[in-house]
From TrEMBL:
<comment type="similarity">
    <text>Belongs to the GMC oxidoreductase family.</text>
</comment>
<dbReference type="InterPro" id="IPR036188">
    <property type="entry name" value="FAD/NAD-bd_sf"/>
</dbReference>
<protein>
    <submittedName>
        <fullName>GMC family oxidoreductase</fullName>
    </submittedName>
</protein>
<dbReference type="InterPro" id="IPR007867">
    <property type="entry name" value="GMC_OxRtase_C"/>
</dbReference>
<dbReference type="Pfam" id="PF05199">
    <property type="entry name" value="GMC_oxred_C"/>
</dbReference>
<keyword id="KW-0560">Oxidoreductase</keyword>
<keyword id="KW-0285">Flavoprotein</keyword>
<feature type="domain" description="Glucose-methanol-choline oxidoreductase C-terminal">
    <location>
        <begin position="437"/>
        <end position="551"/>
    </location>
</feature>
<keyword id="KW-0274">FAD</keyword>
Length: 570
């Protein structure tokens, strides 16, 4: 194995988390190497490439499942099997990671989220938390994290308006909200009549040209509708490739090595000494020594790398002890409704990944849960992300799936349907976790990560509640027919739901119940920082990227403090 000269910091994964940390550390003079297992990406790759088949259905930007995948089982009594084709979620690959193919919806979690256990007990008592639910406080409050949210939003140029039911802001969004379509205006007017609190959702698709504090200038969104699963040809959608990575490179202190597959964190005692990676173009194994190791890949890969490296204490669901792999959570996306209009038409093919309107009256603890059989809730939104022709064919329930009547209904409702959807929070349970699969391995003979997860009664009750609320809104909007998805069956790895996987290397205020502190520094290895949604002790009723960005800026601050003084960062 070839050993390279030591650097100050090595970062595993160059997406949002890795890009932010590289930018902040390189600007402060640290020598940083970023290791990315995928290839280089740039805005020019997407010029005039509105190819739904290539990107949305053949997954051009995603991890190659034939070389590395995950295995899944709904409970410990059955054998896990590999995910052989994409379905429930999409794992990014290459420079920028999932930050290239995201939609751009950029929320802040609610103050309730960060103190969920204490706030729930304070209002409803301990019995509100069912047996097996392992919610815990995050070891940080919203007010403590708010400056980092602000920094992320200014870097990305987030376009939005203030959420009337959210935590306090230190400043306004850096750019105005996006345009309002006729469908969005209908939702807004209806929600207000229902005494709800709608607002235009925060968007990383720029509403106007913007230059951020680092001097990065980007143009405005063209509303082409090719955001999710696609790279942005205009650079209007904030992603690491057009924001933080160029800033890091410009310093001369940051080197990216693509096609570099990190397989082990090398460590002695309670400190890492570097990483071992394979150059996938040659097969050569290389050691990169470093004073500080930052793990900033996707949730599954963060957990897998720690477990394969035997770093941190693996979680044991039988005893509830250990932390690596604990509190895997997902999202409840089933509680939604679609409305069909006989005499109104909408241009739903135009749009943007984060074009829409939302409300939080049923999110977090913004409503009384005393008589409900669940905690938390969901944001409820009408989004206009651009209904591309292959993926979308809305017809009322009961319509034949082929033939003359199917075609007639498809044509009739192509422009006469709207969806109001809830994005429900996911609570952790003791028997939901990530570990190494004992059977299946990757091309390097390393064990794959295994998911053990299923929906619980908490989730079914939440989905029923949310679908009813979505149905009510659409009826008030004037829909002639509303089909609501009120039943949540067993979790299935096949149909797409969201790429909002969280947990496994969770943060907290004690090494007994968490893997990292509030700066995402490992309790068990002081020079290792594990950054990303793997730090979430539960998942909220929002997209996770805004919170990943805020925590990344806080982690970067912690790394800088550690580089000067060492020891636990406080």
């Amino acid at each position: 194995m070839r050993k390279l000269p030591k650097v100050d910091v090595v970062i595993v994964g160059v997406g949002w988390a890795g890009g932010i940390i590289a930018s902040e550390l390189a600007k402060n003079g640290l020598k940083v190497v970023g290791l990315e297992r995928g290839k280089e990406r740039k805005t020019e790759d997407y010029f005039m490439v509105h190819d739904e088949l290539r990107y949305a259905y053949r997954y051009e930007l995603m991890q190659d499942l034939s070389k590395e995948t995950i295995t899944f089982r709904s409970n410990e009594k059955i054998r896990a099997l590999p995910m052989r084709q994409y379905g429930s979620f999409l794992i990014g690959n290459g420079i920028g990671g999932a930050g290239v193919h995201w939609n751009g919806q950029t929320y802040r979690f609610l103050p309730y989220d960060f103190e969920i256990k204490s706030k729930t007990i304070e209002r409803y008592g301990k019995n509100k938390i069912p047996n097996g639910m392992t919610i815990q406080n995050w070891g940080i409050t919203y007010d403590q994290l708010e400056p980092y949210y602000d920094k992320f939003e200014k870097m990305a140029g987030i376009s939005g308006e203030e959420n009337p039911l959210a935590g306090k802001r230190s400043s306004k969004y850096p750019t105005p909200p996006m345009k309002s379509s006729p469908a969005m205006k209908m939702f807004m007017e209806t929600a207000k009549k229902m005494k709800l609190h709608p607002y235009i959702l925060p968007s990383a698709n720029l509403s106007q040209a913007y230059t951020n504090p680092d001097g990065v200038a980007r143009s405005a969104c063209q509303y082409c509708g090719f955001c999710e699963r696609f790279g942005c040809e205009y650079g209007a959608k904030a992603d690491p490739v057009v924001t933080v990575i160029p800033v890091a490179k410009k310093t001369g202190n940051f080197e990216i090595r693509t096609h570099s597959y990190v397989r082990r964190i090398l460590h002695k005692g309670n400190k890492a000494i570097g990483v071992m990676y394979t150059d996938v173009t040659t097969g050569e194994e290389i050691e990169q020594p470093a004073d500080i190791v930052v793990i900033a890949s996707y949730v599954f890969n963060n957990v897998r790398l720690l477990l394969n490296s035997k770093l941190g204490r693996p979680y044991d669901p039988a005893t509830g002890r250990g932390v690596i792999g604990k509190n895997y959570a997902y999202q409840v996306m089933r509680g939604n409704a679609i409305g069909f209009f006989e005499n109104k038409e909408f241009n739903t093919f135009a749009g943007a990944g984060a074009l829409g309107v939302t409300l939080d009256d049923y999110n977090g603890d913004n409503f009384d849960h005393s008589d409900l059989k669940f905690i938390h809730g969901a944001s409820i939104s009408l989004t206009q992300t651009g209904l591309r022709p292959i993926a979308n064919n809305p017809v009322p329930k009961g319509t034949p799936s082929w033939g003359k009547e199917f075609k007639r209904q498809s044509i009739k409702y192509a422009n006469r349907s709207l969806t109001v959807a809830a994005q429900g929070a996911s609570m952790p349970f003791r028997h939901h976790f990530l570990d190494l699969d004992p059977t299946y391995k990757d091309v390097f003979d390393d064990p794959l990560i295994r998911i053990t997860f299923d929906f619980e009664e908490q989730d079914r009750q939440l989905a029923l509640f949310l679908a009813t609320k979505c149905e009510e809104i659409l009826k008030q909007m004037g829909a002639d027919r509303v089909d609501a998805n009120k039943e949540l069956g067993p979790y299935d790895i096949v149909p797409y739901q969201s790429t909002h996987n969280t947990g496994g290397v969770i943060m907290g205020d004690s090494p007994d119940s968490s893997a990292v502190n509030s700066y995402l520094q490992m309790w068990d290895a002081e020079n290792v920082f594990v950054v990303g949604a793997s730090a979430f002790p539960h998942n909220s009723g929002y997209n996770p990227t805004g919170t990943v960005g805020a925590l990344s800026y806080r982690a970067a601050e912690g790394i800088l403090k550690y580089s000067k003084k060492g020891g636990p960062v406080v």
